[in-house]
Amino acid sequence: MRILVLLLLLATPAGAATTVAHGIATHGDLKYQPGFTHFDYVNPDAPKGGAIRFYGLGGFDTFNPFVIKGDPDAGSGRIYDTLMAASADEPSSEYGLLAETVETPPDRSWVAFTLRPQARFHDGQPVTPADVIWSFETLRDKGRPFYRAYYANVASVEQSGERTVKFTFKSGENRELPLILGQLPVLPKHYWQGKDFEATTLTPPLGSGPYRLGKFEPGRWSTYARVADYWGRDLPVNRGRHNFDSVRYDYYRDMTVALEALKAGAYDVRIEASSKDWATAYDIPAVRDGRLKKGEFKHARPAGMQGYAFNLRRSLFQDRRVRQALGYGLDFEWANRTLFYGQYTRSRSYFDNSELAANGLPQGAELAALEPFRDTLPAEVFSAEYQPPVTDGSGNMRDNLRRAAELLKAAGWSIDAQSKQLVNAAGKPFEFEILLVDPAYERITLPYVKNLERLGITARVRTVDPAQYQRRTDDFDFDVVMHAWGQSLSPGNEQRSYWTSTFASQPGSMNVVGLQDPTIDALVDQLVAAPDRASLVARTQALDRALQWGFYVVPNWYIAYDRLAYWDKFGMPDTIPPLGVQLDTWWSAPKRESSDGAPK
What we know:
The chain is an alpha+beta fold. Helices cover 25% and strands 20% of the residues.
């Protein structure tokens, strides 16, 4: 590998000053040097074989996860390879998968990927630059809206060598963009010719990855078979991963049914989202005798933000004071004590559990990032540390509700003497719907609704099935949803799809709240253009602070560990990377399972 990199560097035209390497980091140096054999958090000698079974909710009607139409199968991404593969023990680094090398100039105004000559689709056809170009253009033009956000700064793409594809970027620094292109799933152009890419499909698609689609029953279950002659099985990024011969997904109506199915041995692994279930639902013989394990795996991922998200497309939520007032109706301390068994920490940042979270008052580089927008940001951004409302946990919320009532009055709302409802100047009552996808959230949401009733607000709770929920959120057909924004240790282009004006009106986009604010747009642009790690941290904190004081959500809560329940039939590496448990590094332990793969 070192010889290959040296030869490529020697072949670079004089004065070009480009770097050709086996991997790339957004900022700083790579952890894994040329010639590395595997990631540190895998077992490079993990045995292949056996099966692992997961669950899904609702159902599926397509194996195309790249478009807005349909409900894709949970495992449909397993059949595709990307140009690069990310490591789970670095903030933002990628290493060659389909691409043998990645080349960039110092200003990262373009990136070129040279494909491995051995890269193949499952039908034996080579992966070519034409496939890369077609995949990029198709996902950009026909894929889900977030692809347009990811690729917005790509000016052109061309084949620049026998196995090389070059992406040239628009002006403006964007150090993450080469890594964004590295995540590009490469689809077979020859397979999709004559097919409607935007349609749903239950025809097994062609890929190049470690698995191919096996048997399935639409909406009920699917299986993926490990490709025995997978072209990339011995690459450093794959060694010790993709160890199961079979991966299966079984679909259940809701979380309650899915939990009972796990306890019955119908599937193998569950990431537990319910604190109540984690505390009370696993007191069964299989857990007591160790056959069903409960593990709490610490991680260093940013917690992101989960909360009741307001749809700013509704006039009801366009006043910042109204949104702030609604935050005073949630009694987290009471809920944590009585509903969550003390397991959670209150969310206050969109990047909790990381150095990216805005704390204290802005200073230094963060203050410099905010200063140009002093006149358009809330004054509190510069004068106060954001903290969500706090109670004593007793259930007595009188002070908080009094403050909420003051804010609502200032926003033009008052109590009607006859109906006792909160109404505006035109006599229209304050009422809205909270849309949920899981009945388990009802026990959390209903106490919040009762607190709002004391303010004269009518909030209705509606729980729908996953397919309907997906359709309604894709079409922004909701007032309030419980939504979560995942975050990475190296935020970048995805923030555009979360927060910027361009995506507020695009169905299926991740700008769930419908935020259209030129100041937020500019802060996101600053973040994306961060030239080094220190400036990225400061600019992320600046964006975080602006979002905090915008009151776009009623913050919920988080935990800094993953709760996994799993049958004792697996081996796993000793090392858990900062990004948390990597299930694709587990392997089957035959001595712990019966001949049919079911738990003993």
